[in-house]
Amino acid sequence: MPIGLAVLLAAPPLPRAQQPGADARPFKPEELEQIVAPIVQYPDPLLAQIFMASTYPLEVIQAARFAKANPNLKDAALNEELKKHKWDDSVKALVRFPQVLELMDSQLEWMQKLGDAVLAQQKETMDAIQRVRAKAQQPPESYWYYCPSARAYYPTAPACPQPWIKVPPRSQ
């Protein structure tokens, strides 16, 4: 398991102003995969920050507004300005990744689901990351397309008056 995710797993449950409801149903594995899909391409240390920050949605919104209002702040000047805010460190870390903040700020329902998943199903959420990554690395399935009326495969038959039939390729 990557070290960034291992650190997040070992951490105590995250504090949050609004805990998910006691009657909230757990997400299914497929739902978790849909929730994490927009962020699986990021490296594990950044994912850990995204996971933690998603549990502070109001702070993420404030940080996104701050980043939009101060796009030219960099390095030491940015650090000094961030010290003035009482945001969680994970939220402050994301200010250096404006595209991530923009995603989280523009997709509030998604961010809320991600935060709920991280708080209630931390291990399952990280497992979903690994499943989505594994699926992305698999080569796409290939098929041949057969035209029954022409008794030929595409591209030999460039058009078919009937619907094409998708068939698995055969070894030659």
| H/E element order | HHHHHHHHHEEE
Helix content: 40-55%
Strand percent estimate: 5-15%
- What is the strand arrangement across the widest sheet? 2-1-3
**Number of E strands:** 3
Comma- or semicolon-separated keywords:
mainly alpha; 2 domains; 5% strand; 9 helices; three-stranded antiparallel β-sheet; 172 residues; 3 strands
Description:
- With 172 residues, the protein is mostly helical.
- The chain has two domains: 3-137, no CATH class; 141-172, no CATH class.
- Helices cover 53% and strands 5% of the residues.
- It has nine helices and three strands.
- The protein has helices at residues 3-10, 29-36, 44-53, 57-69, 75-83, 89-94, 98-106, 108-120, 122-137; strands at residues 144-147, 152-153, 165-167.
- Strands 2-1-3 form a three-stranded antiparallel β-sheet, with no helix packed on it.
- β1 and β2 (152-153) form a beta hairpin.
- The protein is elongated and about 75 Å long.
- The two termini are 40 Å apart.
Q: Quick gist of this model?
A:
With 172 residues, the protein is mainly α. It is built from nine helices and three strands, in the order αααααααααβββ. Mean pLDDT is 86; it is low at 13-18.
Which SSEs are present, and which pair or pack?
Layout: H1 3-10, H2 29-36, H3 44-53, H4 57-69, H5 75-83, H6 89-94, H7 98-106, H8 108-120, H9 122-137, E1 144-147, E2 152-153, E3 165-167
Antiparallel strand pairs: 1-2, 1-3
